[in-house]
Amino acid sequence: MSTSAISSSFNSVTDLFRDPSGNRGAKFPDKLFKVLDLKMQNIAMGKDPQYNDQYTRRVIAVFWGSLKAAEKPSSREPSSTSWRQIKENRKIEELILFYVTTATQALRKDPTLSGDGWKHELDAQTSQFVLILRDCLRSTSHVPPEIMSRLELYATRLAEGMQSQAPTSGGRGTSANQIHPGTGDTMRFTPPSLATVDDMPLVNVVGKLFDKTKKELQNDINTVRQFCSEKSALNDIKTCLKNINADMPFPGRREDFDTEEAFHRWRTQETAHLSQLMLAMIRLKPDLAKAIPSESSSRYSQPQRPPSASLAPGGADSGPSFGGVVSEGEAFASDDEIEVGHNFTYIPPNPKKAYKRLVELCLERDLEAMIHLPEDQEVSLTILSHQHLDLLNESALRWRMSHPYRVTCFLDVIRYKYERDEVPIECIPEGLQMVDKAMHDVPAEFWSQFDMDYVSTVYGGLFNVFLGALYEALEDITKLKPEKIAPYVQVLEAVQTSGLVGRYKADIDARLNDLADRVRVQAVHQYTDKNYELMSNPDPNRALPLLHLTDHLEKQAKLLDKRFPKPILGRLDLVSLALESQIPLFLTDLGDMRVPLLEGSTRKPPEVPLVDIFMLYRRTKTLLSMHEAFCPNSPLDYDLGGYFEPYVLQYLVNTDLQTAQWVHAAISIDKTISKLVEEYCRTVEDLFMDEMYPRGNADERQSKQYAFIEKARLTIAGEKKVDPFNFTPSSCVKLNNIEAARNLLDGLYARIDVDRICHVLDDHAPTAYDEPEKQRFLFTVKIVQAEGLVAPESGSSKLDSFVTLSDEKGIRLAKTRTIYESLAPRWDEAFDISVESSLWVMASIRDRAIIGKHDTVGRGYLFLDPKRFGDYLAHDVWLDLDTAGRVLLRVSMEGEKDDPQFFFGRAFRSLKRAESDMIRVIIDKVAPLLRQYINRAVLVGLVKTTATSYDYNKALAGVTGFYRSAIGADKADSLIPLPHQDKGRMRFQALTDEEIESALSPLFDYLDANLQTFNNHLSEATKATVMAKIWKEMLATIEDLLVPPLANVPSDMKPLTDKEVDIVFKWLKFLNNYMYAEGASPLSQEQLQNQKYRDLLSIRLYYDWHTDELMEEAVRLMQQTLRAAPTIKKRAKTVYSQRNLGTIRDRKKEKKQEAPEGSGDMILRILRMRPNTTDFITQQFDAYTRSQGEQRKKTMERKSGPRNRFSKPDVPPMPPLPERL
After folding, report:
1. Model confidence over 713-738: pLDDT tens digits?
2. Which whole-number Å values give the CA distances from 1014 to 339, 819, 920, in the listed order?
3. Residue 632: helix, strand or coil by DSSP?
4. What mean pLDDT comes out for the span 231-256?
5. Which residues is 947 bridged to in the sheet?
6. Considering only CA atoms, which of 872, 911, 906, 908 is closest in space to residue 891?
7. Each residue's pLDDT tens digit, 1011-1068
8. What is the DSSP string of 121-161?
9. Rounded CA gap, 681 and 915, in Å?
10. What CA–CA distance (Å, rounded) separates 1116 from 245?
11. Of 346, 599, 827, 897, which cross-links 816 as Cys (Cβ 3.0–4.6 Å)?
């Protein structure tokens, strides 16, 4: 904006803001922005009748919009930078300049303002904005008087400039009277025609303070008019200036300040402010300057300050000065008649005392007015009304009250009115904030000594008052809450951190010590009352009152620590003071109860149980620890161990007498836990089996005759399709329950600390009884598989077989699940058999019958002898059946002990087996679907769809040239006849991956539906286990396609063709990708590509090898395996290794770290499909069996010793077969 934007009555904007003092350091309050925003909004919307002019509303609207745009953080407008600078500096001149810039742009665009009309309108709008700022500041608290005086000066300059200029043609004529229509503020700019009370708003305010009528006020005005004039006011200002130069007490002198710098700063600012007042008065009434000679102008006038670059970037233009008004450079009249001293007309003899009394009167009047206000009307915490604020500002300006004194005076008056309950406590922080703001604006080192002494005295009085309030609030520390003392503490902390009460440090320390003593006394009274209440109880157990007392002390200390985590005022730690007083009293009472407690604990029966004594020990130890933590400067020397030593000795005596009973009782409980867990597992398994094999109701249940007919129909029809089984969420929940039970049992194991208990029992075993208990042994018999079974003559070609184990009396000990449609079933089910001596066990394989009695397939017999299985290793025992075939049992043994670890191990084993059995049932449901879609029949079907037989010559003769070029053969080559051995061979068209994968589509559809159920309803751990088992079954299915099972006899299974092998391995790849699911599966690629997976990949390597090469590789791998085999075979999985989840995880980790077996077994399985390999396979099996036998023999010799090295227990004759079997 050009500096000549304001009309020709001014040379530039600098003329308007010209300041003879060269000082504009005062800042307007932050609240002005909010008040100004609301004011401009009302004007722009036409809600303010005082400013309803069309131009005013338009310019204000544009200015308001510019402010809103500049306030946005993302704004890139040039005005945003200026606005941020205004908000940071808070200079009233910058705000007016910003308005002038915006108004110039808006008025220049107005077509109705031709020529220089916009300039005159700009003068009018600038005057309006100055008035708006003045009104807004009057409604804002904490406004420095200097800002109000400068606004009066700017308004006067604008009004005078407009009066001296006539409106030009084409513009909108604006007179001085049109600037502020309808207001009584014109008296600030033009002399009043009549000195009546109605023209004096502040006089009316003073009259209301002193309860005077207008008539009385008018009489007073007429009385003082002869000596209260403008000249008298100007003389007061000049007297102040002269006093400053003469170093007189008023308004200030050098000795009032601590440093020369502080005095110089005050003197510069005070002289500048007085000069501004004089200039404003002379501009308001030029006759004041003409009536006085001009002898000593240099004494009072200040040199002009050069134009500010920020206010007048274009420099000052030459031009006329204010018409008819003396300039600042022109000398004032002579002041020889002005005497130095306190010769004032408007300034009272004691200005500070008068100002303080005026504040009191204003506050009292406004407090009286608040009584009649509505309850919901908000009131400022300063209490003062706008009229009284104007009066106080004007008085402070005329009486030369410094801003530090004004805010301190207000705080002082608020303080003693608070003591009289005349104002709320919320007013105190408001007053403190005013003082803090004043100290921020003017640092304390620049305050006068009087102001510093005054504010220190007021702050000291505040500290004293609120310390007293805090003292009264600490009457009952048990019911004391932070919110009750928070207002007091807030004021005390504000006063304390101000640094203004340092001179009262000794008195403050004494008062804080009084507060600490009060807390101690209250704590003692509280303890005494509680102790009397508890001790008056006639209970013979004298430990109970002490226990209740310790509990009370601990809870109260924790409550105080929670409510008051930090010391009050950094000195009063309520928890420390309470414990410092109460704990010594408790220890004294505890010592007085030594004899009664000891006598009560030794009586029969004891009146004071030892468990209460030990609880009292723990509680007392806790209190001593709390005292040590909270009261480090007040240590207690108390022999806690010596006090409770007799009770420990008494406990040891009683324990020695009852140890044997406790041990047997504890072991009985451990047995009970084991049995309960086993019963729980059986119950959950039964419920699970009911869902896996549902039984219909009476109406829906099929009869046995119908089942027989249905089976016959399926047999006649040929291939039997498997009905897919869909799993339900309830089955998943039961499987989750087993895992949850394992976690709970593990938590119980840890809580009881079973390992530590067992170590204690081992170290302090009770005296053995005369008759030692018989040793029991626990055999684990795992029914692995059967092979070579032959179906009964009356039956079908396949068996639905299960296995039962029975003892010598025919009592069933175990029963496996049924494996359907197989002559080589695999059960992999383990059972525990507890014996005291050797036992014959019969393993009977049955063929499940739909109707009638189950047929017996074959029987084998096992002798469970602790002497034969005393190496505690797992033994693979092949039982030859009495008919045909054999069954593999894996037997291991361990000794039973009445030991918590053993019974917890049995409980964990029961849960693990229940989980394994339930997961195995799930696999049994999935396995038939796997074999239905992954078998040799499907494989042959895929190959047949792509196989075509044709004559090469005929085919090549009939194809197009494009096809000939594609296969790269010419016509001459195609006519060469094929060798005889290649005639009739089939040429295959390559299958695409989509076609190969389509064969598995029904399987994937089934898995999609059921794996989703597992994913939604199984826990993460159980879900991973189920998925791993399904993947294992998939690998086994693929393996069965490629090679026969491992055995020492040849197999009738034929090897697959290269095409078929390729399809099988693509199936393996598709299944791997499906189970990995791009990382969404609970199984990682490391888990999927396990040792079994790698063994399958090795089949592809060995499948095409020559038989001799395979035999050589098998021998090499056998020798490598025997060399790497450990000399000592690891023990079988015992009950102790499964006593908690930690040991189970450790065993799994060890098993995973064991070196994987080589591919020797896989080569032998491939050789079973090759001709002329019978002798080689038998030789390899015999060599491996001899090696295992030698290792087992060495182990037995090492365990049995040299005496029995060549002894071998005899096997007794088999008992007669029970008839019912």
Report:
1. 444 444 456 678 888 888 888 888 87
2. 105, 24, 15
3. coil
4. 88
5. 988
6. 872
7. 888 888 888 888 888 888 898 888 888 888 888 887 777 888 888 888 888 888 888 8
8. HHHHHHHHHHHHHHHHHHTSSS--HHHHHHHHHHHHHHHHH
9. 9
10. 119
11. 827
Take residue 33 and report the two structure tokens written for it: 């922005």
**Quick one: 123 exposed, middle or buried, by C-beta within 10 A (0-12, 13-18, 19+)?**
buried
**In the predicted model, what is the mean pLDDT of the chain?**
75
The pair of three-digit structure tokens given for residue 869, joined into one six-digit string: 């299985």
Q: What is the DSSP letter of 188?
A: G
- Angle 1058-1076/1091-1102 helices, nearest 10 degrees? 160
Q: Is the pTM of this model over 0.85?
A: no
Q: 990-1004 burial string, b = 16+ CB within 10 Å, else e?
A: ebeeeebbebbeebb
Residue with tokens 């329950």: 737
Kindly tell me the sign of the dihedral angle through the C-alpha atoms of 596, 601, 602, 606: positive
Which stretch of DSSP H or E encloses residue 988? strand 987-988
Q: Which of 498, 309, 316, 485 is nearest to 408 (CA)?
A: 498
Separation CA 820–CA 665 (nearest Å): 47
Q: Any idea what DSSP says for residue 184?
A: S
Q: Residues 581, 518: contact at Cβ < 8 Å?
A: no
In angstroms, the CA 6 to CA 123 distance is: 6
Residue spans of beta strands (DSSP E) within 28-95? none
Cα 812 to the center of its chain, rounded Å:
58
The tokens 């003092």 sit on which residue?
21
What is the C-alpha to C-alpha distance for residues 27 and 46, in angstroms, rounded to an integer?
Answer: 30
String of b and e for 198-227 (b: at least 16 CB within 10 Å)?
eebeebbbbbebeebeeeebbebeeeeeee
Helix (H, G, I), strand (E, B) or coil at 833: strand
Nearest CA-CA partner of 95 in 81, 78, 83: 83
DSSP assignment of 294-358 equals -S-HHHH--PPPPPPTTT-TT-PPP----TTS--TTSPPPP-TTPPSSS--SSS-SSHHHHHHHH
DSSP secondary structure string, 760-822?
HHHHTPPPPPSSPPPP-EEEEEEEEEEES----TTS-SS--EEEEEE-TT--EEEEPPPBPS-
Residue 759: count other Cβ atoms within 10 Å of its Cβ: 11
What radius of gyration do the chain's Cα atoms show? Answer: 54
pLDDT band of 770, cuts 50, 70, 90? very low
Asked whether residue 1221 carries a pLDDT value surpassing 60, the answer given is no
Strand partners, 840: 863
HEC states along 842-911? EEEEEECCCCCCCEEEEEEEEEECCCCCCCCCCEEEEEECCCCCEEEEEEEEEECCCCHHHHHHHHHHHH
Provide the 3-class DSSP secondary structure of residue 829.
strand
pLDDT of residue 1148: 61
Is the C-alpha dihedral spanning 311, 317, 318, 324 positive or negative?
A: negative
pLDDT category of residue 413 using cuts at 50, 70 and 90: very high
Structure tokens at 31: 């609240």
Q: Give the CA-trace dihedral at 666, 670, 676, 680, to 10 degrees.
A: 140
pLDDT tens for 439-480 read 888 898 999 999 999 999 999 989 889 888 888 888 888 888
Tokens 């058999």 appear where? 833
Residue range 964-996, pLDDT digits in tens: 333 344 433 333 344 444 444 444 467 788 888
Q: What distance in Å separates the CA atoms of residue 121 and residue 6, rounded to the nearest whole number?
A: 9
Q: pLDDT tens across 922-937, in order?
A: 888 888 888 888 888 8
Contact 423, 414 (CB under 8 A): yes
Tokens 């019974």 sit on residue:
903
Q: At what angle do helices 574-592 and 505-535 cross, to 10 degrees?
A: 40
Q: What are the residues facing 988 on neighbouring strands?
A: 947
